[in-house]
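dumping this here before i forget
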Amino acid sequence: MKLRFMPREERFFELFNEQATNLVRAADLLVKLVGDHTQAEDLRRQIEEVEHEGDLTTHEIADRLNRTFLTPFDHEDIHELAGRLDDILDNIEATADRMFLYEAGAASAEMVRLTQVLADAAKALASALERLPDIGRNARRIMDHCIEIHRLENVGDEQSRLALAEVFKESDALYALKWKEIYDHVENAIDKCEDVASILEGIVVKHT
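structure:
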Protein backbone atom coordinates (compact mmCIF):
# COMPACT_ATOMS: atom_id res chain seq x y z
CA MET A 1 0.00 0.00 0.00
CA LYS A 2 1.35 3.45 -0.93
CA LEU A 3 1.61 5.93 1.90
CA ARG A 4 0.94 9.58 1.14
CA PHE A 5 3.04 11.63 3.54
CA MET A 6 1.77 14.97 2.24
CA PRO A 7 -1.63 15.54 0.64
CA ARG A 8 -1.70 16.45 -3.02
CA GLU A 9 -3.36 19.71 -4.01
CA GLU A 10 -6.57 18.57 -5.67
CA ARG A 11 -7.92 22.09 -6.30
CA PHE A 12 -6.20 22.01 -9.72
CA PHE A 13 -8.87 19.64 -11.01
CA GLU A 14 -11.62 22.06 -9.96
CA LEU A 15 -9.81 24.95 -11.63
CA PHE A 16 -9.37 23.07 -14.89
CA ASN A 17 -13.07 22.20 -14.85
CA GLU A 18 -13.88 25.87 -14.27
CA GLN A 19 -11.71 26.79 -17.23
CA ALA A 20 -13.37 24.12 -19.37
CA THR A 21 -16.76 25.63 -18.49
CA ASN A 22 -15.48 29.07 -19.52
CA LEU A 23 -14.20 27.62 -22.77
CA VAL A 24 -17.47 25.94 -23.69
CA ARG A 25 -19.45 29.09 -22.83
CA ALA A 26 -17.19 31.30 -24.94
CA ALA A 27 -17.26 28.92 -27.93
CA ASP A 28 -21.06 28.66 -27.79
CA LEU A 29 -21.37 32.44 -27.65
CA LEU A 30 -19.12 32.72 -30.70
CA VAL A 31 -21.36 30.30 -32.58
CA LYS A 32 -24.30 32.59 -31.76
CA LEU A 33 -22.37 35.64 -32.89
CA VAL A 34 -21.48 34.26 -36.32
CA GLY A 35 -25.07 33.07 -36.69
CA ASP A 36 -26.44 36.58 -36.10
CA HIS A 37 -23.95 39.42 -36.57
CA THR A 38 -26.59 41.96 -35.50
CA GLN A 39 -25.90 40.83 -31.91
CA ALA A 40 -22.14 41.28 -32.31
CA GLU A 41 -21.77 44.08 -29.75
CA ASP A 42 -23.65 42.29 -26.96
CA LEU A 43 -22.15 38.86 -27.64
CA ARG A 44 -18.66 40.31 -27.89
CA ARG A 45 -19.16 41.86 -24.44
CA GLN A 46 -20.33 38.53 -23.03
CA ILE A 47 -17.32 36.74 -24.50
CA GLU A 48 -15.00 39.38 -23.01
CA GLU A 49 -16.53 38.73 -19.59
CA VAL A 50 -15.98 34.99 -19.94
CA GLU A 51 -12.40 35.56 -21.11
CA HIS A 52 -11.80 37.77 -18.05
CA GLU A 53 -13.09 34.99 -15.79
CA GLY A 54 -10.73 32.65 -17.63
CA ASP A 55 -7.81 34.98 -16.95
CA LEU A 56 -8.60 34.91 -13.23
CA THR A 57 -8.68 31.12 -13.30
CA THR A 58 -5.37 30.99 -15.16
CA HIS A 59 -3.78 33.31 -12.58
CA GLU A 60 -5.09 31.19 -9.72
CA ILE A 61 -3.64 28.04 -11.30
CA ALA A 62 -0.25 29.75 -11.71
CA ASP A 63 -0.29 31.12 -8.17
CA ARG A 64 -1.28 27.79 -6.67
CA LEU A 65 1.33 26.01 -8.76
CA ASN A 66 4.05 28.26 -7.38
CA ARG A 67 2.96 27.49 -3.81
CA THR A 68 2.35 23.74 -4.12
CA PHE A 69 4.92 20.99 -3.74
CA LEU A 70 2.82 17.88 -4.41
CA THR A 71 0.58 18.28 -7.45
CA PRO A 72 -1.74 15.76 -9.14
CA PHE A 73 0.65 15.59 -12.10
CA ASP A 74 3.85 17.29 -13.28
CA HIS A 75 4.23 21.01 -12.66
CA GLU A 76 5.26 21.50 -16.30
CA ASP A 77 2.13 19.75 -17.58
CA ILE A 78 -0.12 21.85 -15.34
CA HIS A 79 1.61 25.02 -16.53
CA GLU A 80 1.30 24.04 -20.21
CA LEU A 81 -2.31 22.93 -19.84
CA ALA A 82 -3.31 26.21 -18.20
CA GLY A 83 -1.46 28.24 -20.83
CA ARG A 84 -2.96 26.51 -23.83
CA LEU A 85 -6.51 26.72 -22.41
CA ASP A 86 -5.96 30.44 -21.90
CA ASP A 87 -4.75 30.72 -25.51
CA ILE A 88 -8.01 29.20 -26.76
CA LEU A 89 -10.06 31.76 -24.85
CA ASP A 90 -7.83 34.58 -26.09
CA ASN A 91 -8.39 33.55 -29.71
CA ILE A 92 -12.15 33.28 -29.23
CA GLU A 93 -12.22 36.77 -27.75
CA ALA A 94 -10.03 38.08 -30.60
CA THR A 95 -12.45 36.59 -33.14
CA ALA A 96 -15.47 38.30 -31.57
CA ASP A 97 -13.52 41.53 -31.16
CA ARG A 98 -12.47 41.67 -34.82
CA MET A 99 -15.94 40.82 -36.08
CA PHE A 100 -17.37 43.73 -34.11
CA LEU A 101 -14.61 46.30 -34.67
CA TYR A 102 -14.23 45.53 -38.37
CA GLU A 103 -18.02 45.52 -38.87
CA ALA A 104 -17.43 42.29 -40.74
CA GLY A 105 -21.10 41.66 -41.42
CA ALA A 106 -22.78 38.34 -42.02
CA ALA A 107 -20.57 35.28 -41.74
CA SER A 108 -20.30 32.71 -44.49
CA ALA A 109 -21.64 29.17 -44.15
CA GLU A 110 -18.01 28.01 -43.87
CA MET A 111 -17.45 30.35 -40.92
CA VAL A 112 -20.55 29.02 -39.19
CA ARG A 113 -19.31 25.46 -39.65
CA LEU A 114 -15.80 26.39 -38.50
CA THR A 115 -17.01 27.91 -35.23
CA GLN A 116 -19.19 24.84 -34.64
CA VAL A 117 -16.09 22.68 -35.02
CA LEU A 118 -14.44 24.84 -32.36
CA ALA A 119 -17.45 24.47 -30.05
CA ASP A 120 -17.41 20.69 -30.52
CA ALA A 121 -13.68 20.58 -29.74
CA ALA A 122 -14.28 22.67 -26.60
CA LYS A 123 -16.92 20.23 -25.39
CA ALA A 124 -14.62 17.26 -26.05
CA LEU A 125 -11.89 18.99 -24.04
CA ALA A 126 -14.31 19.63 -21.19
CA SER A 127 -15.29 15.96 -21.14
CA ALA A 128 -11.63 14.89 -21.08
CA LEU A 129 -10.72 17.33 -18.29
CA GLU A 130 -13.70 16.22 -16.23
CA ARG A 131 -12.25 12.70 -16.16
CA LEU A 132 -8.72 13.70 -15.07
CA PRO A 133 -9.22 13.20 -11.29
CA ASP A 134 -9.61 9.45 -11.78
CA ILE A 135 -7.12 9.08 -14.60
CA GLY A 136 -6.50 5.37 -13.97
CA ARG A 137 -10.10 4.39 -14.56
CA ASN A 138 -10.76 6.99 -17.23
CA ALA A 139 -7.60 6.73 -19.33
CA ARG A 140 -9.36 5.16 -22.32
CA ARG A 141 -12.18 7.71 -22.30
CA ILE A 142 -9.74 10.61 -22.05
CA MET A 143 -7.77 9.25 -25.00
CA ASP A 144 -10.98 8.80 -27.00
CA HIS A 145 -11.85 12.47 -26.45
CA CYS A 146 -8.34 13.44 -27.52
CA ILE A 147 -8.67 11.41 -30.72
CA GLU A 148 -11.94 13.22 -31.44
CA ILE A 149 -10.22 16.59 -30.96
CA HIS A 150 -7.49 15.59 -33.43
CA ARG A 151 -10.22 14.62 -35.90
CA LEU A 152 -12.00 17.93 -35.41
CA GLU A 153 -8.75 19.83 -35.98
CA ASN A 154 -8.45 18.14 -39.38
CA VAL A 155 -12.05 19.08 -40.17
CA GLY A 156 -11.31 22.64 -39.08
CA ASP A 157 -8.29 22.83 -41.38
CA GLU A 158 -10.42 21.78 -44.33
CA GLN A 159 -13.21 24.24 -43.49
CA SER A 160 -10.67 27.03 -43.08
CA ARG A 161 -9.13 26.32 -46.49
CA LEU A 162 -12.55 26.35 -48.13
CA ALA A 163 -13.52 29.55 -46.34
CA LEU A 164 -10.36 31.40 -47.32
CA ALA A 165 -10.70 30.25 -50.91
CA GLU A 166 -14.16 31.83 -51.02
CA VAL A 167 -12.98 35.01 -49.31
CA PHE A 168 -10.21 35.63 -51.81
CA LYS A 169 -12.61 35.26 -54.71
CA GLU A 170 -13.98 38.65 -53.63
CA SER A 171 -12.74 41.69 -55.50
CA ASP A 172 -12.73 43.76 -52.30
CA ALA A 173 -9.21 43.32 -50.88
CA LEU A 174 -10.04 44.99 -47.55
CA TYR A 175 -12.98 42.63 -47.05
CA ALA A 176 -10.72 39.65 -47.74
CA LEU A 177 -8.03 40.84 -45.32
CA LYS A 178 -10.58 41.43 -42.54
CA TRP A 179 -12.03 37.96 -42.87
CA LYS A 180 -8.64 36.29 -43.22
CA GLU A 181 -7.64 37.66 -39.82
CA ILE A 182 -10.94 36.52 -38.32
CA TYR A 183 -10.56 33.01 -39.76
CA ASP A 184 -6.97 32.84 -38.54
CA HIS A 185 -8.08 33.41 -34.93
CA VAL A 186 -10.69 30.65 -35.13
CA GLU A 187 -8.20 28.26 -36.69
CA ASN A 188 -5.64 29.15 -34.01
CA ALA A 189 -8.21 28.39 -31.32
CA ILE A 190 -8.86 24.96 -32.82
CA ASP A 191 -5.11 24.34 -33.11
CA LYS A 192 -4.72 25.15 -29.40
CA CYS A 193 -7.47 22.64 -28.63
CA GLU A 194 -5.31 20.03 -30.34
CA ASP A 195 -2.32 21.19 -28.29
CA VAL A 196 -4.33 20.60 -25.11
CA ALA A 197 -5.30 17.14 -26.37
CA SER A 198 -1.62 16.31 -26.91
CA ILE A 199 -0.78 17.45 -23.36
CA LEU A 200 -3.59 15.31 -21.97
CA GLU A 201 -2.35 12.30 -23.94
CA GLY A 202 1.08 12.79 -22.41
CA ILE A 203 -0.37 12.99 -18.91
CA VAL A 204 -2.31 9.77 -19.47
CA VAL A 205 0.80 7.95 -20.68
CA LYS A 206 2.80 9.11 -17.64
CA HIS A 207 0.16 8.15 -15.09
CA THR A 208 -1.22 4.83 -16.34
